[in-house]
User: Which sequence fits this backbone?
C-alpha cells in the first residue's frame, strides 16, 4: 500500500466512524453506549478496584467496532436493542437505568437464551478491554494489571 | 523474462530455509531465498497482549495479514468456513523472515530415540498411519549438536535420564535465577520420584554469538524479543549466509509454483514479487521450506503433465498426516504467591512420561507454562467459577498470582484423513487456490492426552496445590505452530513423499525441508528437529553434485 492509498483508506475509515461530531462514541449511538456501559459494568463490576466503566471497556469496544470488529456492528446493534426492549418489557425502564440486580437477571437470561452467541461476544470483548493492553482503549491507567499485581509494561526509551 | 540462473532457490525463510541457505552458501552455491512476509527487527517488538502470534485477538503481529490470505477450515462435523489468518481454525504459524522462530517460546528439544521408531516400538493403532522414520536419532544427533552450538541453546538436561545420548552438553547454562514456579515444582517432582530438569531453550542466558542475554520480561512467547536474546533463524544462520555475498533474500515474494521441464525436472519457481509482478527464478535445485501447510499447498499447486495431481503426489500422500500436538495438562491454585514476573516462565520439565506409559503409545514432555498474560489467564478459569460478574473478578484477583499450569505436547497418532488439500473455490489475493484443512484427532491421541493431564495434576498436587483442574484435549485437527507431517519422509515412494534426504521421490532436484517431512512429531516442540534436519539435508544437497549437473 503506498502513502496515497493509505491516506485514502484512513479517510474512509474515519468518515465511516465519526458521523456524530457531538458524541464521544465512534461506532455506537449514545443510547447503545449507555446500554452497553450498564451491561459491561455488570460483567465486571466496580468494587475496591475499577469496574468495566472506569476501565474504559466500552471505549475499547467502540474503538474496535471501527476497526478489527467492524463485522460485529450489526450484532451489537441488534442485541443492545433486544436487551433494551426486554428491560422495558419486564421493568418498564431502559436497561441503562436498571439497578445491578435486575440487569443481572436479564443478562442471565441472555446468556442462556437465543442471544447466547451475542452474549459470549460481548463478554469476550469486555474481558479483552478490561484485561488487555491499554493501547487499544481499555484497561485505562493499567487498572486491571494493578489489580492483579503485575507491573505495567515498560515503555522503551522512557524507563 | 526469467531472471539469471542460480544454483538454488529456497522458498520460505522460516526455521529451515535459512539453515539450508547457510549450508549451501558455505559450499559456494549462489542462492536465492524467497519469503512472502517481511523482515522484522527487535524494534518491531510491541508488547501488545491482544495483537501477537500467540494471541491474535486483534490481528497477527508477524503475518500473514488478514486481507487476501484466507484458508478453508473443515470441522469434524463437515462444516466449512473461510477463515482469516488471525482466526482460530487457520492453523497459523507466521509469515515473516525467521517464521515461527522470531516469536516462539523457543523450547529446543531433541526428540527421543523412540520418537523415530514409533511403529516398531508400539505398533500402529487402527486408523492411524503411525510409522518409523527412515532415519534414526543417531543420524540426527550430530546436527542437533550443531544447531545447539552454532545457534545457541541454554538449559541443563543433565538430570534427564530419558534423553537420547548426547556428545556435548548445551553451550549455555539455564537462565538464572530459575524462578519461583521452578522451585516449587522441582520439590514436588522429586518427591514423586520424577526427574525434573531445566528446559533447553533457543534463548541466550548469557551473551552468546554477539547477542545479549534474556532480560526476563513477561512478553516472550508470541512476541519478537526486544533485546534480541531469543535465538531464531533470522539472527543466526541467515546473517551468516548473507555475509558470504552468495545469498539474495527477497521478501514480500509469494511463490506460486515449482516449474518443471518436459521431462519432469525442476527448472526453478514462479513467484509474485513485492510489487505484485509475476517473476520466474531459474535454479538448478528447488527447496520448499514453507511449513507443513504451505509446502503441501505449493506441491499441490505445482501440477504438471507427469504429475496431474500435484508434484510428488502420484500416490496421494501430499498433504496427508497433518499433525501438530495435543496440548493437555492441569492448573493448580496455591495458598501463596507463585508469580514472580520473571520471564519466560517456562523453565522446568520432566520426560518421565514421554514413553513407557502402560497401554499407551508414547506420551509427551510436561513443562510449566510460559507466563500467562492477564487476558490469557481468563481462559484458565476452572469449572465451577462463573464466567462473569463479581465472582469471576474475585477469582482473577485471587488466582492470578497463585496459579501454576503444567502442560505438555502429547505426541499424536497421525491419520490419513487429517490433511491439507487445495480448496476448489477459494483463492488468495494472487488467484492461487488456498489450503483446505480437515481432519480430527485419533481417539488414542485423546486417550494419551488425558493420561498426561492426570500426571500434570498429580505433580501439581504433590507440589502443594490446594485445588487443581484439568486442561483436557478437544476434538478437531491439530497443526498450528507445530504443524508437521504433510510430505512424509520414507523409503517407499508408494507411502511417502520424500526420501531420507528429503528429496521428492519423483524429481531429483526438488527438496522439502521443514516440519512437513516429519513422519511423527515427537512429544516435544519440533523446532530443533526441523533445524537439525535442515543442517543435515543442506549438507547433503551441497555435496550432491546437483549444482554441476543441471
Assistant:
Amino acid at each position: 500500500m503506498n502513502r496515497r492509498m493509505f491516506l485514502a483508506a484512513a479517510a474512509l475509515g474515519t468518515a465511516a466512524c465519526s458521523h456524530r461530531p457531538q458524541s464521544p462514541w465512534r461506532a455506537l449511538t449514545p443510547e447503545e453506549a449507555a446500554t452497553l456501559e450498564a451491561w459491561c459494568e455488570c460483567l465486571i463490576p466496580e468494587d475496591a478496584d475499577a469496574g468495566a466503566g472506569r476501565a474504559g471497556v466500552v471505549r475499547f469496544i467502540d474503538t474496535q467496532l471501527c476497526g478489527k470488529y467492524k463485522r460485529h456492528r450489526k450484532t451489537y446493534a441488534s442485541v443492545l436493542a433486544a436487551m433494551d426492549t426486554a428491560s422495558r418489557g419486564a421493568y418498564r425502564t431502559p436497561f441503562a437505568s436498571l439497578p445491578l440486580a435486575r440487569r443481572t437477571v436479564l443478562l442471565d437470561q441472555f446468556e442462556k437464551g437465543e442471544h447466547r452467541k451475542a452474549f459470549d461476544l460481548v463478554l469476550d470483548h469486555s474481558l479483552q478491554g478490561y484485561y488487555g493492553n491499554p493501547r487499544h482503549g481499555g484497561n485505562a491507567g493499567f487498572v486491571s494489571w494493578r489489580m492483579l499485581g503485575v507491573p505495567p509494561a515498560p515503555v522503551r526509551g522512557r524507563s | 523474462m526469467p531472471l539469471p540462473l542460480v544454483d538454488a532457490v529456497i522458498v520460505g525463510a522460516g526455521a529451515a530455509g535459512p539453515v539450508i541457505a547457510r549450508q549451501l552458501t558455505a559450499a559456494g552455491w549462489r542462492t536465492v531465498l524467497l519469503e512472502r512476509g517481511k523482515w522484522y527487527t527487535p524494534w518491531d517488538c510491541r508488547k501488545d497482549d491482544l495483537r501477537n502470534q500467540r494471541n491474535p485477538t486483534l490481528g497477527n503481529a508477524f503475518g500473514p495479514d488478514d486481507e487476501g490470505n484466507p484458508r478453508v477450515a473443515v470441522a469434524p462435523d463437515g462444516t466449512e468456513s473461510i477463515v482469516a489468518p488471525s482466526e482460530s481454525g487457520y492453523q497459523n504459524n507466521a509469515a515473516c523472515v525467521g517464521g515461527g522462530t522470531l516469536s516462539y517460546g523457543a523450547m529446543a528439544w531433541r526428540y527421543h530415540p523412540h520418537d523415530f521408531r514409533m511403529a516398531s516400538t508400539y505398533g500402529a493403532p487402527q486408523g492411524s498411519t503411525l510409522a518409523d522414520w527412515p532415519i534414526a536419532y543417531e543420524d540426527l544427533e550430530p546436527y542437533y549438536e550443531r544447531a545447539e552450538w552454532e545457534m545457541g541453546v541454554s538449559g541443563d538436561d543433565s538430570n534427564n535420564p530419558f534423553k537420547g545420548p548426547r556428545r556435548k552438553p548445551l553451550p549455555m547454562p539455564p537462565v538464572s535465577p530459575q524462578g519461583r514456579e521452578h522451585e516449587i515444582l522441582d520439590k514436588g517432582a522429586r518427591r514423586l520420584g520424577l526427574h525434573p530438569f531445566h528446559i533447553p531453550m533457543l534463548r541466550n542466558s548469557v551473551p552468546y554469538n554477539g547477542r545479549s542475554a534474556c532480560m526476563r520480561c513477561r512478553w516472550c512467547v508470541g512476541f519478537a524479543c526486544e533485546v534480541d536474546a531469543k535465538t531464531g533463524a533470522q539472527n543466526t544462520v541467515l546473517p551468516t549466509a548473507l555475509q558470504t555475498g552468495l545469498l539474495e533474500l527477497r521478501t514480500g515474494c509469494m511463490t506460486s509454483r515449482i516449474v518443471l521441464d518436459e521431462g519432469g525436472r525442476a527448472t526453478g519457481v514462479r513467484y509474485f514479487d513485492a510489487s505484485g509482478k509475476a517473476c520466474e527464478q531459474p535454479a538448478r535445485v528447488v527447496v520448499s521450506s514453507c511449513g507443513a501447510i504451505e509446502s503441501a499447498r505449493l506441491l499441490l499447486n505445482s501440477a504438471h503433465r507427469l504429475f496431474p495431481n500435484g508434484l510428488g503426489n502420484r500416490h496421494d500422500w501430499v498433504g496427508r498426516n497433518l499433525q501438530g500436538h495435543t496440548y493437555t495438562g492441569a492448573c493448580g491454585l496455591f495458598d501463596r504467591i507463585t508469580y514472580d514476573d520473571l520471564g519466560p516462565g517456562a523453565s522446568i520439565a520432566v520426560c518421565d512420561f514421554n514413553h513407557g506409559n502402560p497401554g499407551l503409545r508414547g506420551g509427551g514432555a510436561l513443562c510449566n507454562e510460559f507466563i500467562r498474560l492477564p487476558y490469557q489467564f481468563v481462559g484458565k478459569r476452572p469449572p465451577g467459577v462463573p464466567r462473569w460478574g463479581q465472582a469471576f473478578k474475585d477469582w482473577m484477583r485471587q488466582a492470578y498470582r497463585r496459579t501454576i499450569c503444567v502442560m505438555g505436547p502429547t505426541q499424536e497418532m497421525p491419520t490419513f484423513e487429517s490433511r491439507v488439500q487445495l480448496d476448489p473455490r477459494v483463492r488468495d489475493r494472487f488467484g492461487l487456490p488456498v489450503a483446505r484443512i480437515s481432519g480430527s484427532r485419533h481417539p488414542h491421541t485423546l486417550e494419551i492426552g488425558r493420561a498426561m493431564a492426570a500426571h500434570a495434576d498429580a505433580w501439581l498436587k504433590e507440589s502443594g496445590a490446594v485445588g487443581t483442574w484439568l486442561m483436557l484435549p478437544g476434538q478437531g485437527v491439530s497443526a498450528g505452530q507445530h504443524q508437521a507431517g504433510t510430505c512424509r519422509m520414507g523409503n517407499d515412494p508408494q507411502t511417502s513423499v520424500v526420501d531420507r534426504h528429503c528429496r521428492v521421490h519423483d524429481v531429483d532436484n526438488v527438496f522439502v525441508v521443514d516440519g512437513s517431512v516429519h513422519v511423527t512429531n515427537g512429544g516435544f516442540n519440533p523446532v530443533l528437529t526441523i533445524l537439525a534436519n535442515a543442517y543435515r539435508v543442506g549438507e547433503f544437497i551441497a555435496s550432491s553434485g546437483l549444482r554441476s549437473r543441471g
Remarks:
- The interface with chain A takes residues 47-50, 57-59, 217-219, 226, 339, 341, 374-375, 377-378, 387-390, 392-393, 396-397, 400-401 of chain B (CB under 8 Å).
- The two ends of chain B are 20 Å apart (CA to CA).
